[in-house]
Amino acid sequence: MQPNRKPPTFFVQLLDLFLMELTNWRWSWRSTILTSMIAPILSIVALGSLAQGSAQNSLAYILTGNLIMSLMFSNHNNLASRFAYMRFAGTLDYYATLPINRQALIVATVLSFFLLSLPSLIATVIFGTLFLKITLAINPLILLVIPLCVLPLAGMGAAIGVYARTPAESDSFSLLLSMVMLFIGPVIIPGDRLPEFLLTLGYFSPATYAASALRQTLVAPITGKLIVDIVALLGFALLTFWLVGRKLDWRLR
To answer: Any idea where the domains of the chain sit in the sequence?
Structure first.
């Protein structure tokens, strides 16, 4: 009998799964990047045209809100679709037979989508800055904020993909969640233009803190609120990944 071998470490699994996920998109990465740019850019054009003559603060909400759409919601939707596909294709059943850390699979998948989303993110920033005529004030802390904008909904996207009864249902649930979080709290619309109950609900949405952190590191001056935003994003990310590790059953039912 061969001695029992320990499974690879978390980071070895993460690297291997990340490279595997990237190879899945080697034929379609161009179309993935193109389609992820369309919605934010069209939204900037529509909202920016309506907000012509508005203060820089209001225009900053339009820019950063659409960046959140690309960073947080696009990656969340992609993750839900990917896990739904892997579930119904039997890939998750295969992974369940291996000593694979579930969090490593989710992080590897979201990192692959995050890497593919970076070109569209940069293009959206450049287009939005020129179209809205916004002056950027980029802070180095943005290198921390951008990845943190992706992680809080990663576990939720995986859970939707695993528990949805059909891939179409997965797409519908993830789109609904994205739209709800986009419009509760001051994400794309300034807080002084939202009713009180939406502002209150916004405290329970990671998109609120992601948008605030992105505004401060991209456009507005840094304030003490940035610490609250970063802690909140870390908290949401840790909570969702803990729940995934404890509750997620990815076997096909």
So the answer is: 10-247
